[in-house]
Design a protein that fits this description.
By secondary structure, the chain is mostly helical. The chain has a domain of 33 residues. The protein has two helices and no strands.
Length: 55
């Protein structure tokens, strides 16, 4: 059990970090997903306003 305990703990740490990183990465694209969309919409609105102002 002692021999299995240290490796399981070591494995648990990397797996836990990997899961946390994976979860963070999963959350990042989700948050960054809507943000760029809003940014793109704002950019489009800005471009439209610029075009209208130019006209």
């Amino acid at each position: 059990d002692d021999t299995d305990a240290p490796p399981s703990t070591d494995d648990a740490r990397p797996h836990g970090e990997g899961d946390a990183r994976r979860q963070g990465a999963a959350e990042v694209p989700e948050r960054s997903g809507p943000a760029p969309r809003r940014g793109a919409a704002a950019a489009r609105r800005t471009d439209a306003e610029r075009q209208e102002a130019g006209r």
